[in-house]
Amino acid sequence: MAPAPVSVRHSVLTPSLTNRTLLRAFLLTAVAFFAAHPARCSLTLDDSILIAPSQLSNGSPFLITVSLPNPALSVTGNWQSHQISFFPNSDRHTWYALAGVDVELTPGNYPLTIEADLKDKTHQTLHQQLTIETAPYLQVPLTVPDKFVQPDPKSLRQIAADKIVKDKAFATSAAKPLWTGNFLPPLRLAPQSDSFGNQRLFNGKVASVHRGLDYHAKLHTPVAAINSGRVVLARPLYFEGGCVIIDHGLGLMSVYMHLSKIEVSAGRRVRRGQIIALSGASGRATGPHLHLGVRWQGSYLDPAKLYEIQLPTTTPLRAR
Ligand SMILES: [Zn+2]
What we know:
By secondary structure, the protein is mainly beta.
């Protein structure tokens, strides 16, 4: 197995004694490295990376499929400073990861880098440039009770305590996918309302980006888990009202808000389609509805776009 060539740009190194010494030390180190690590390192810019959907905008979730010539021991990626962990199919030639474009990312071109350690002790680095287009998000004025726009000191203490609880729930995610197959809407019949990504003006004062999808749902409509996972939070919060958070593994979580009744508890495993709660109007809500958020490593993604991605089946999870 031939070591990768080591190239040195001589124009950078002037032939002073110090630089000649440095150059010799560098070459000796490089030779020693490749003698000790007889791995072939290659740089690939081909079509071994497949991104679905092919068009991305801010708020898009996406599936990365990596096809390798040989089985791999591990595959990792880097995207927007996020570390991406891939999982394999049975032959370990094909690896998958779900990732996303933050709703507030400025559209443009951004690099995706993937590193693969193959079973034959070779290493591959794959590169792809992802183009992020502008999603057509709107500005929407809304009216809610003043206590949600200018909370009093007691409410501010509650909001601060809620943040600690949520940060803890978001802090750890399973090291493997807990989901299997496509994600499904939490309410099959209720229509989606306020679009994901809209800029919202609460009482004309506070602007925020809507980081989820709202469903018109009558009070007490059964709410289903959008995929399998483990419940990491199930309790009332100030803004969110009755809230459930499900970890789907590898940094992906779904968040259900304004619930009137919660039917699961933290720590419990749930199946895709399992009823986890009843919808309501609790917390900062303009009326009865379900708010669904999809969060990947701190970035909020459009749930409607997640349903459209054809996903591989992973090991199914049994509910307890
Ligand atoms: Zn909402």
